[in-house]
Design goal:
By secondary structure, the chain is of the alpha+beta class. It has 18 helices and 17 strands. The chain folds into three domains: 249 residues, no CATH class; 135 residues, Protein Transport Mog1p, Chain A (3-Layer(aba) Sandwich); 57 residues, Membrane-bound Lytic Murein Transglycosylase D, Chain A.
Length: 506
């Protein structure tokens, strides 16, 4: 959550609770609300810092100025949504080393690309019309060799050369028109509902077909550029493993951003492997693990310092000087707009801030209309760790909410808990979290440091368990699992001496 001025916080003062989380049951869906501005993009990387393009202009199947206009219009929104452009010479070189080869091997070598590395820990990649490609530093951190990064970029280039974004937008507009006609014209509401569902399923399948097409094109391009064609399937598996690690509910379908817009289905994995086998047996093509990991050594990992830090179950913000801790079983996730969390029982949490300077009391603020379904009799003023606060409850659209606001100066820091099945634990978790909110001491603020990737070569006798002990920013009980996923290694096997591995350290 970024440090915001009172003026900036005022923008969120009319937050609609139901719109924000009433229809969402987990942190994955909450995150999608925050990312709605980039509904048909794909992550990329500002590889060349100065915006220099790779390749030359291609007329494509649409007027070039039209696709370029769309990309240029949406580019600032994408950059703002994903925390700005990430500047890191090593990361830029890591991406630059593959782009030229992929362009030359692509279906349209004349297509130009503008690649941006986004300053986001999310694992994401996407494309805009006009050759705008985006890749997050979070995705670069999960990748373990050059071929895996090349696989992601080849997939996104395939979306551009196949004109998928424009086709998807046109299909979406057609679907909206059909739905409006059905709603306005069809007398039988049930028949209209069935027809609308049918059109939605058709659109979903249309998007899925595009993903499968991009997969096949991407693997072919990868191999033509002399990279390991099996990298696509390998990285899909790594992302799926990281999705399971991130999820508080191991049976849920929570996934990194890339997998939400690029569904990781068995069908996709099968196609990726099948496409690679048509080219050759495993072991062909360049992977270049050592050089890639050397290039991302020292790269920022996780939250940007300006957005605050997630440390296990605690959120700590150095600039704002605040912190809180969620109960065991919750997984925290930070974003530019809010801190989100969920557990395996379907409880969702949102934490953010708002300007409350225009209200004489926090009770007045709580009743000012920003909460749908507020139960006025539930509003109680209180004190939390010496700070003025207020709590309340709301019920709307089948959801129950618990809300707490704690005031420091002009800012009200807000906790919003949501559940469809509130019980005693729901109330206890809410009280425990709200009561944990506090101001950090000067010493605590001084000790807060960013997490970075540190690449080391293994020594004789090194095991995943031994190396994982030195990881920072992760609960001790989950360090081995995290280390194994981050490095794509079997946690139960000895690591060959001299293998380059990633550690996350302060």
């Amino acid at each position: 959550m970024a440090a915001k001025t009172a003026t900036e916080l005022r923008r969120n003062d009319r937050l609609r609770l139901a719109a924000a989380i009433a229809k969402q049951s987990a942190v994955r869906r909450l995150r999608l609300l925050l990312a709605c501005l980039v509904s048909f993009t794909v992550a990329s990387c500002q590889l060349l810092g100065d915006g220099t393009s790779v390749g030359s202009v291609s007329p494509g199947t649409l007027r070039p100025s039209l696709t370029n206009d769309i990309g240029a219009r949406e580019h600032p929104r994408v950059v703002a949504t994903y925390g700005g452009v990430y500047k890191d010479p090593g990361a830029e070189r890591a991406v630059a080393s593959v782009v030229g080869r992929l362009v030359a091997a692509s279906d349209d070598p004349s297509q130009s690309y503008k690649i941006t590395i986004l300053n986001s820990p999310a694992i994401n990649a996407f494309a805009l019309p006009g050759g705008y490609l985006y890749i997050t530093r979070g995705l670069l951190a999960l990748a373990n060799d050059t071929s895996e990064v090349a696989a992601v970029l080849a997939h996104e280039m395939a979306h551009v050369t196949a004109n998928h974004a424009i086709k998807r937008q046109q299909r979406a507009e057609a679907k909206q028109l059909v739905n409006r006609i059905l709603t306005d014209v069809v007398q039988d509401s049930e028949e209209a509902r069935k027809a609308i569902i049918s059109s939605q399923l058709s659109f979903a399948r249309f998007s899925q077909v595009q993903e499968l097409e991009a997969d096949a094109i991407g693997v072919r391009t990868l191999a033509k550029a002399k990279f390991d064609p099996y990298a696509a399937a390998r990285f899909l598996r790594s992302m799926a493993a990281y999705a399971r690690y991130q999820s508080a509910d191991k049976t849920s379908t929570s996934a990194p951003d890339f997998l939400s817009s690029h569904p990781s289905t068995p069908e996709r994995l099968q196609i990726a492997v099948k496409s690679a086998r048509q080219i050759g047996a495993p072991g062909i093509g360049e992977r270049d693990r050592d050089r890639y990991l050397t290039q991302i050594d020292g790269m920022l990992y996780g939250d940007d310092p300006l957005e605050g830090f997630v440390r296990g179950r605690s959120f700590l913000h150095k600039a704002l000087g605040i912190g809180f801790t969620v109960p065991a079983g919750y997984i925290l996730e930070n974003s530019t707009e809010a801190v989100l969390a969920s557990n395996g029982d379907g409880t969702a949490i949102r934490f953010d801030g708002a300007d409350v300077s225009g209200f004489s009391s926090l009770a007045d603020y709580m009743k000012s209309g920003w909460i749908n379904g507020l139960l006025p009799e539930s509003v109680r003023e209180t004190t939390i760790n010496g700070l003025p606060g207020v709590t309340g409850a709301a019920i709307t659209q089948g959801w129950s909410f618990r809300i707490a606001v704690v005031r420091i100066g002009r800012t009200g820091y807000r906790f919003i808990f949501a559940s469809r099945s509130p019980n005693q634990r729901f109330d206890e978790d809410f009280r425990q979290t709200a009561d944990s909110f506090r101001q950090l001491t000067p010493t605590e603020r001084a000790r807060l440091q960013s997490l970075r990737l540190k690449v080391v070569k293994t020594k004789p006798g090194d095991t995943p368990r031994k190396l994982a002990v030195g990881m920072s920013g992760v609960e001790p009980s989950r360090r081995l699992e995290f280390f194994s996923i981050l490095n794509d290694l079997d946690p139960n096997k000895t690591i060959a001496t001299g293998t380059a591995v990633k550690l996350v350290v302060e």
